[in-house]
Structures are given as structure tokens and as C-alpha cells.
Amino acid sequence: MASVPRWVKRAAHNLDNQFDKVAEKLHRLSGDNSRIHITPYMGYGNREKVHLRGRAFRRYNVPFATETDSRWMNLRNLVRRFVTHEFANAPVRIDYAGETYETTTDDEGYIHLTVEPPEAAETFTDATYTLQVAAADRQHTAPVLVVPDNASFAVISDIDDTILQTEVTKLLNMIRNTLFHNALTRMPLPGVAAFYRALQRGTTEDGFNPVYYVSNGVWNMHDLLTHFFQIRGIPRGPLFLRDAGITEDIFGVDVDHKINAIRHLMTLHPDLPFILIGDSGEKDAMIYAEVVREFPGRIPAVYIRDVDPEGQGSKRDFRVLALVDELKNYGTDILLISDTIAAAKDAITRGYLPPESLPAIVEATERDIIG
């Protein structure tokens, strides 16, 4: 896509902000708070600090998905996810680990708060977010992850076509998957759930390695993704999505979002090695290579799932393979993998997984293929 002048992006962004402010004023004047929701996102951190996150917004209710929902019901719910108005400057109370914190949402309705965890913090502790506005859907909880001291490594994974079958490289299939399916009818990549659970567990009985999900998907899809992860047995971990503002929607994918999120996580855990997992469909290899150059020696392995394993020698394959020799100089092996089993076997040879974990991953992969 041709580069869009910065002034055009800035003008579009300002227009988007002005529209949202006018809409919010009209809503406040009406006094109708019935469609205000607060959605907490999973918090995360280390022994020194944790990040508490969420968002307050106005939208029509999106009912819990069922397997019998029609394609048009799924489309309607998708539209409802995107027809939202942020609830800016809203008072929020967060109760976490015996402490109470007061904050307000920002101009986009997001909640950002950094606090100290308790000295003996559990790996997962619930935080309760209360939107202090009358008649609103105003209290929900979300877990907060504090990475334990016995973690051996951290995993950062893409979502679309890495975990969730989206078929980004096939436009019509991508449209069908996105518009007409829900959390129960979307399909995972075969074996991914079992592989990620094994990575999270590691090689010790009481081990726990954090899994982070960094995607160019938008926060509007947060409920669908968390529901999908839950029913498919994909290990829970913090999501890093992007805002669906007019600038991002019209002018393409925000590559910096992924790089900045990964950089933030690697800085948060300076003593942990990282495993990066993505696919060859978009720009994961390029993005991960940039991070490898910035953090030499910190990323021993990058797994890139081949979105077209039968089309060997494609441009997508070449983009990945062209990085192999360069990234070795930074202490990183980048591997173009055909399926989950290939990634699991490599992880076993590197000592990330115990050999006895492989049969369960193979069985799960075969079961997922059969459906």
C-alpha cells in the first residue's frame, strides 16, 4: 500500500477524536448509562510492578456465543463489537491483592495503572474493576499474572494463523472466518493448545513459563478471543492488541504495535530468554528479526509456521529462509515449520520440553486435524 502523508493521518485522527467527543457529550446529556460496559484485560508484571488494564465503552450487548448461532447472528455480533464509543475520563476503582486504587479512563476509554504487587504474590490473582457510574454494567474481574521466580523462559505468540485459523492470505476465506463464525465455531491450528500448555509447564513439575499473545488484532475482539482460548484449552496469558481507531483501520497494519509490545515485555523480564512464534502469512519474520537485532542473545528460537507448506520455494518461504544466517550471528535460530509437531520436536531437542510431552502433542494434533 502506498505511503499516506503524515498530515492526512493526523487529520483523520483528529476527526476521529472530535467525533468521539461529540458522541460522548450527547450520551452524557441523555443520562442513559444502560449500555456502558467495563472490560478488564488480564494484568501482568514481575515482582516489582504489575500493569492493570481495561476499557470502559458504550455498545449494545453481545450475547454469549453458542454453536447454533446462525451466520447472520455472528455477523450482527461482530458489528456490535465495532459500533462502540469509548467512555473517557470515567472514574474506576480497582481492588487488587488487598489494596484499592482509584483511577480514570483515558481519552480512548482505556485503563492503565502500574502498581506494586504484594511481596508473596501468587502467579494469578484476581483484580476487580468497578466503574463508578450509576446504571452501568460496572463490575468485572480479571486475573493478574505475576511471573514466578522459577520461570525458565517466556513465550510470545502471534494469534491469526498461528493459533487461530484465519487464512489471512486467502481473502474470501478470511472474510468468511471473521464475519460469520464465533468463538465456538472458529478453529485452532492443530495441536497448538497442547504445545502451548507444554511450553507453559516446561520441564519441571511445578514450572510455569509465561505465554504472551501479541497480535495486530483489535481490542474489540477481546471477548471472542478470550472465550476461544478458554474453550480450546489454550493457556491463559495477557493479550496485546491494538486500538481500532480510524487511522489504523484505513491506513493499514501498525507494525510498530507488535515491535513495541515485544520490546516492552523483554524489558520487563530482562533475565528471561524468549521464544517467539508466528507465521509466514504476514510480517512476523521481519518483525521478529528486528527484535532479535535489538536484543542479541535473548531469543534462542523463532518458530514461523509455514502457511502454505506444500508450496515450497514461495516468496513467503524465501523471506524467512533469507534471515537464517543473519540471525545466527545474534544467537537465534529461526525455523520455518510445517506443523506443531515439528516445533515440539525442536523444542524438546533444545530442552524446553521433556521428551515425554511429545506423544500428547502428536495425539492432540491428529485429533484436531480430524476435527
Summarize the helices and strands and which ones pair or pack.
Layout: H1 6-30, E1 36-45, E2 50-58, H2 71-82, E3 85-86, E4 91-96, E5 99-104, E6 110-115, E7 124-131, E8 139-146, E9 154-157, H3 171-180, H4 192-201, E10 211-218, H5 222-232, E11 239-242, H6 246-251, H7 255-268, E12 274-279, H8 284-294, E13 301-305, H9 315-321, H10 324-328, E14 333-337, H11 340-349, H12 358-370
Parallel strand pairs: 1-8, 9-10, 9-12, 10-11, 12-13, 13-14
Antiparallel strand pairs: 1-2, 2-3, 2-6, 4-5, 4-7, 7-8
Helix pairs in contact: 4-12, 7-8, 11-12
Q: What are the key terms here?
A:
Immunoglobulin-like; 371 residues; six-stranded parallel beta sheet; Rossmann fold; single chain
Low-confidence stretches: 1-5, 247-252
Sketch the topology as an H/E string, one letter per element: HEEHEEEEEEEHHEHEHHEHEHHEHH
Q: Which architecture name of the largest domain does CATH use?
A: 3-Layer(aba) Sandwich
| Through-space gap between termini | 37 Å
What's the β-strand tally?
A: 14
Morphology call: globular
How would you sum up the major sheet? 8 strands, mixed
Structural class: alpha/beta
- Annotated CATH topology of the largest domain: Rossmann fold
User: So what's the CATH class of the largest domain?
Assistant: Alpha Beta
Question: How many structural domains in the coordinates?
Answer: 2
